[in-house]
Write a structure and sequence with these properties.
The complex is a heterodimer.
Chain A (H helix, E strand, L loop, with lengths): L1 H32 L4 H7 L7 H10 L6 H14 L1 E5 L2 E5 L6 E2 L4 E2 H36 L4 H15 L2 H15 L16 H34 L3 H8 L4 H29 L3 H6 L5 H10 L3 H29 L1 H5 L1
Antiparallel strand pairs in A: 1-2, 3-4
Helix pairs in contact in A: 1-4, 1-13, 2-3, 5-6, 5-8, 5-10, 6-8, 7-8, 8-10, 9-10, 10-13, 12-13
Chain B lengths: L2 H5 L24 E14 L2 E14 L3 E5 L6 H8 L9 E9 L2 E2 L5 H7 L4 E4 L3 H4 L6 H12 L4 H14 L5 H4 L9 H13 L5 E5 L7 H18 L2 E6 L2 H5 L4 E6 L2 E7 H6 L4 H8 L54 E2 L9 E2 L5 H12 L4
Parallel strand pairs in B: 3-8, 3-9, 6-7, 7-8
Antiparallel strand pairs in B: 1-2, 1-4, 4-5, 9-10, 10-12, 11-12
The chains are: A mainly alpha, B alpha/beta.
The complex binds adenosine-5'-diphosphate, iron/sulfur cluster and magnesium ion.
């Protein structure tokens, strides 16, 4: 188990290094290969109307005059030890973890990202709780009552859920619940948990449900398929032959095995959402990571795009690591292979 | 006969009326532990009604072993699961007939009551012990669970019982292996653990559905020995299901040969082995591996493929594969289904077979053409 754990953590770290290298390459190597000069590249970091002095400073600060490996090394190093950005006599210190500096807005990237995390996490965690409960419950009922009216009803709703894009359901919910029947009469605005847990939950309820609707539908279908498969396994027949109650056969023997693939997919979905629920955040005007990433792309603010990309990648890798560990806890065969 | 009238036979003493000979009393004499009468298990599927078991009757006494033999798909597993009451959950299953266990009829009984008998009075072991055990739970936990469903004891007591059972079935270091997972066991060990799990509540009936088919030849013999020993020790009734006559040759007291969901021959082991009276049984005997004969010398095993259980044609189900189908007069094998009838036998009464050929003809073919080649 310990060996498995170490192997997985090591693998995750390696994966992060690869991701960082690829991200670095996209931002620094590809433009160079496409024939951009270092001055042109540096100019992108400050905007079109920048004066040559600033461009030169940016070029120096980013180390664009250095060989690529040195640039990459600096890029990694500053995450751990921070960096100093010099503009003539001014020195702008970027504390570790330093994920770069926006020359356009003169701000450090990391604090910006950190300030968006609570919104994104609130959205992702709440929605995940809702979709796990509702998706798995309906999936199990559908599988056990296969072919019944209830099964058909759930699966029709699920089909709608996976087919309707979230900007449609989200916009619809927003319009109906704030204008048509203004239950949320003041609109829906993010309130930090620390300010008022009640308002936090109240305002998040509609975004949670909009986001969870899509995922519930996916998870209901997955659970149903998984349950149908496991309930026809030999060990289910054995459990029944032992004289176990059907509820125990389903819960302890069937569901546990059916959940294994769901854990994997959940890890990926959840990790992705921790990097920002772009559409949901946009529909409800929540200042989360996803919306921030979109805005930075629009502004062509490369250091922020890069920071958000790396952060999102980190969450995905981290969640997948957790999945591997949970997986080992669920399925003993994994630990030994 | 229509589907409706078959369904109406549920719980009625209709066995005799259906032309099925009744070899013993319905609820059995004192020592008849299991009595199955005219069991029919049909499944509705998209392709049509699958008549997996279509009128099977047999008795098993305490301490006795009944071998059920037939090629794959002949309805052996469905029969045994039917006895265990495990088809009731299937929404597409239609079950009729009678299953008397220790004087109680189970087909019409309350499913909750049958559940309580499962694992306690009657237990079952399966073909592939790897897939039959839950991969996520330790062997011990699965035995403990089987024990605690039927006994109000603490986990600790149940665990001690599990270790005792593992020891009894010959698993070395049972105190340690109790915490192993099924995938950490070898095939033979897993089947031993399955047997321990099945016997943990001292069931009076043990059904073994091809318990050695998935195992190596050397391990096969060990498992069969173990089952035989345990049966002697506990005096339970055993149903040994197999597609290989060799498996039951040494241990069965009685044999039932199934073909296409029906019983085509039934009798004591001596009767069926030494005086078989059905061409399909001859084929099975011919395909039995024998060490004292050269492979090429042996009879060719039953040619052709098993019959469809959907839209079963009229006549004898074996006729497309039967080398003697033209012997009975008036093409009767293709129009009328032969009933099980008692066969004259040098080994006493109770020998039944279903074939249109006359007794004399079959005796002649067996003694002159088949037996010398076996
Ligand atoms: N639940 C089911 N639904 C439909 N057909 C079934 C079902 N269970 C078994 N059958 C069919 O019944 C026939 C007999 O199966 P089985 O008893 O498993 O044969 P075997 O003699 O090899 O054990 C097979 O053709 C199988 O396809
Ligand atoms: S009834 Fe006819 S086809 Fe069937 S086993 Fe006898 S001889 Fe063969
Ligand atoms: Mg079978």
């Amino acid at each position: 188990m310990a060996a498995y754990f170490i192997r997985r953590v090591f693998g995750a770290v390696l994966l992060l290094l690869v991701v960082s290298a690829v991200t670095f390459a996209i931002f620094f190597l590809v433009p160079r290969m496409a024939g951009q000069t270092m001055d042109q590249l540096a100019a992108q970091y400050v905007g079109k109307d920048a004066n040559p002095d600033t461009v030169a400073a940016v070029k120096k600060n980013l180390g664009l005059d250095q060989p690529l490996y040195a640039q990459y090394w600096d890029f990694i190093r500053q995450i751990f030890v921070g960096a100093d950005y010099k503009f003539g006599p001014d020195v702008q210190h970027c504390d570790a973890p330093c994920f770069g500096y926006s020359f356009k807005r003169h701000i450090e990237v990391w604090p910006e990202i950190v300030s968006r995390i609570p919104v994104t996490f609130s959205l992702a965690i709440g929605a995940a709780v809702i979709w796990l409960i509702s998706g798995i419950a309906t999936g199990v009922v559908s599988a056990l009552k296969r072919g019944s009216f209830l099964d058909r009803f759930f699966m029709s709703v699920a089909l709608a859920g996976v087919s309707l894009p979230i900007f449609f359901t989200g916009m619809l919910a927003l319009g109906v619940l704030t204008v048509q029947w203004p239950i949320w009469s003041d609109g829906i605005n993010y309130v930090p948990f620390t300010e008022s847990p009640l308002d936090w939950a109240w305002n998040l309820l509609v975004p949670w449900c909009s986001l969870a609707f899509l995922y519930s539908a996916l998870y209901a279908r997955l659970t149903r398929a998984g349950m149908l498969e496991t309930m026809s396994e030999d060990y289910i027949r054995t459990a029944r032959a032992k004289g176990l109650k059907e509820s125990r056969v389903v819960g302890k023997h069937g569901l546990r095995a059916a959940l294994t693939p769901i854990v994997t997919i959940f890890g990926m979905d959840f990790g992705l959402l921790l990097g920002g629920a772009v559409i949901t955040e946009t529909v409800f005007s929540f200042q989360g990571m996803g919306k921030y990433a979109i805005k930075s792309v629009q502004d062509n603010d490369l250091p922020i795009v890069m920071g958000v990309t790396l952060t999102a990648a980190f969450f995905i890798v981290f969640c997948n690591l957790l999945v591997d560990l949970v997986y080992a806890a669920i399925d003993p065969r994994v630990r030994y292979s | 006969m229509s589907e409706v009238s078959k369904e109406q036979t549920v719980g009625t003493p209709a066995a005799a009326a259906l032309g099925e000979p009744v070899p013993a009393q319905r609820s059995g004499t004192e020592d008849t532990f299991l009595s199955v009468r005219d069991l029919r298990i049909h499944f509705r599927t998209d392709d049509g009604l699958v008549k997996s078991v279509d009128g099977v009757s047999f008795d098993v006494k305490a301490g006795e072993t009944l071998g059920i033999v037939g090629e794959s798909g002949s309805g052996k597993s469905v029969t045994s699961l039917g006895v265990m009451g495990l088809h009731h959950a299937a929404p597409n299953a239609r079950i009729s007939g009678e299953v008397w266990l220790d004087g109680e009829e189970l087909i019409g009984a309350d499913p909750e009551h049958v559940r309580q008998l499962r694992g306690q009075k009657m237990a079952m072991i399966f073909q592939d012990p790897l897939s039959a055990m839950h991969p996520y739970y330790t062997v011990g936990a699965q035995i403990v669970e089987a024990y605690r469903v039927h006994n109000k004891v603490t986990r600790k007591v149940a665990r001690a019982r599990a270790i005792e059972m593992l020891d009894r079935v010959g698993i070395p270091e049972p105190g340690k292996r109790v915490d192993s997972y099924p995938h950490e066991f070898s095939g033979g060990m897993r089947q031993r653990a399955m047997i321990a799990m099945a016997l943990v509540n001292n069931p009076q009936l043990l059904i073994a559905d091809e318990p050695t088919t998935a195992l190596d030849v050397t391990v096969q013999a060990q498992i069969l020995d173990l089952i035989r020993d345990l049966q002697k020790e506990f005096g339970s009734a055993v149903i040994m299901i197999t597609h290989d006559l060799g498996v039951v040759a040494e241990m069965a007291d009685k044999l039932l040969v199934m073909y296409g969901g029906r019983c085509i021959e039934r009798g004591t082991a001596e009767q069926v082995f030494y005086e078989p009276r059905h061409p399909y049984t001859w084929g099975l005997l011919g395909s039995m591996p024998r060490i004292d004969r050269d492979q090429t010398e042996r009879l060719i095993p039953v040619k052709g493929s098993p019959p469809s259980l959907i839209n079963v044609p009229d006549g004898c189900a074996f006729n497309p594969r039967c080398p003697y189908a033209d012997i009975p007069k008036d093409n009767i094998t293709r129009t009328t289904r032969p009933e099980l009838t008692e066969t004259g036998s040098g080994f006493g009464s109770g020998h039944f077979s279903a074939c249109h050929m006359s007794q004399e003809e079959r005796t002649r073919i067996w003694t002159e053409e088949i037996a010398p080649k076996l």
